[in-house]
């Protein structure tokens, strides 16, 4: 599979005839802004809800949490950036690996919407398929403790989002991959996206989102996988266990085998224990990269997907795809937020070079 010519366009109207479509598109129905901060346990104790969880909050609660973070005697500043699993993966593919990428979704014409646009454009992501709507852009507070664990409070109520009937074949035409995250509340949109992708000859990649999503909406997920329309599926270890919960064999290996029966490529990430992947009869297991201390676990799986997909579009062997994923996934946890900062991309390239993997050349990535 070739990478195709790199071309970046940033206009907001639908792409015009003659423009080269991004190689990879990410479907994120709602643009999202993450407010990320390193905090101590005393502040977490003052936040309603369980530490380490993700509980939806109203805008007033989100603003109250932000005020506590800002006023806290903490040397770590608040970091505000475009967020969301799909956005994290697309941003990594674009700025770190030089693959032409775009986002499909909607954002509000507000301060948060403009921050999302600024962050993604600065990382060379095509936003010509990002709709502008009246209403607020989704936000999330991500509080990171001393060992890198996250406590998340998303504010999604009333946020603008792309509706299922607003997606068109034109959005997908000319691209090779469509990335999305499994979510039951957007399932109608996801099904329509997959249907249109198949009509356009676009391959589909799905991330299983969270073990709670798999647990609570397993029948719909199994139906989606059984359709045979999902070409690549990413799951972490917890999601993999939930996928086959109650079965005689329900561990990561069994889940990998199950996914590989329905998808051309199946990947299960195992945190510090590396990853497993299967394509046809080929199965590989790859260790994690280096002795990286986790500053913030946000985006580890998302950036693993960036590296894996880079390897896939470059035509690398399955094991090497996992190795690249291990490098980029290991890099993002070295700093706050779901994006890899420039010095950590240099760390990625050094790791790749050491392992004999092809380091991206932004000027010649036209295979």
From TrEMBL:
<keyword id="KW-0418">Kinase</keyword>
<dbReference type="Pfam" id="PF00294">
    <property type="entry name" value="PfkB"/>
</dbReference>
<comment type="similarity">
    <text>Belongs to the carbohydrate kinase PfkB family.</text>
</comment>
<feature type="domain" description="Carbohydrate kinase PfkB">
    <location>
        <begin position="79"/>
        <end position="338"/>
    </location>
</feature>
<keyword id="KW-0808">Transferase</keyword>
<dbReference type="GO" id="GO:0016301">
    <property type="term" value="F:kinase activity"/>
</dbReference>
<dbReference type="InterPro" id="IPR011611">
    <property type="entry name" value="PfkB_dom"/>
</dbReference>
<dbReference type="InterPro" id="IPR052700">
    <property type="entry name" value="Carb_kinase_PfkB-like"/>
</dbReference>
<dbReference type="InterPro" id="IPR029056">
    <property type="entry name" value="Ribokinase-like"/>
</dbReference>
<protein>
    <recommendedName>
        <fullName>Carbohydrate kinase PfkB domain-containing protein</fullName>
    </recommendedName>
</protein>
């Amino acid at each position: 599979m070739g990478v195709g010519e790199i071309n970046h366009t940033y206009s907001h109207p639908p792409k015009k005839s003659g423009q080269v479509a991004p190689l990879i598109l990410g479907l994120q129905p709602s643009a999202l802004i993450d407010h990320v901060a390193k905090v101590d346990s005393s502040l977490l104790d003052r936040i309603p809800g369980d530490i380490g969880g993700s509980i939806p909050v109203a805008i007033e609660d989100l603003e109250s949490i932000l005020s506590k973070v800002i006023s806290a005697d903490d040397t770590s500043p608040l970091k505000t950036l475009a967020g969301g699993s799909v956005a994290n993966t697309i941003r990594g593919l674009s700025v770190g690996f030089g693959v032409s990428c775009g986002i499909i979704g909607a954002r509000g014409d507000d301060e948060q919407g403009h921050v999302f646009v600024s962050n993604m454009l600065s990382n060379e992501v095509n936003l010509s398929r990002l709709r502008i709507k009246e209403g607020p852009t989704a936000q999330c507070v991500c509080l990171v403790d001393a060992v890198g664990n996250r406590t998340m409070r998303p504010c999604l109520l009333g946020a603008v989002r792309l509706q299922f009937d607003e997606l068109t074949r034109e959005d997908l035409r000319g691209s090779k991959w469509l990335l999305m995250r499994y979510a039951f509340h957007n399932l109608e949109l996801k099904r329509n996206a997959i249907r249109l992708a198949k009509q356009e000859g676009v391959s589909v990649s799905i991330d299983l989102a969270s073990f709670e999503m798999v647990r609570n909406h397993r029948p719909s997920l199994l139906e989606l996988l059984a359709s045979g329309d999902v070409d690549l599926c990413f799951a972490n270890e917890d999601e993999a266990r939930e996928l086959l919960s109650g079965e005689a064999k329900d561990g990561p290996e069994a889940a990998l085998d199950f996914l590989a029966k329905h998808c051309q490529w199946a990947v299960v990430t195992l945190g510090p224990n590396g990853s497993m992947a299967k394509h046809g009869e080929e199965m590989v297991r790859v260790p994690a990269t280096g002795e990286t201390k986790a500053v913030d676990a946000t985006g580890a799986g998302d950036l693993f997907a960036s590296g894996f997909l880079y390897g896939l579009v470059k035509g690398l062997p399955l094991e090497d795809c996992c190795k690249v994923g291990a490098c980029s996934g290991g890099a993002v946890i070295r700093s706050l937020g779901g994006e890899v900062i420039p010095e950590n991309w240099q760390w990625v390239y050094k790791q790749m070079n050491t392992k004999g993997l092809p380091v991206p050349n932004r000027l010649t990535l036209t295979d």
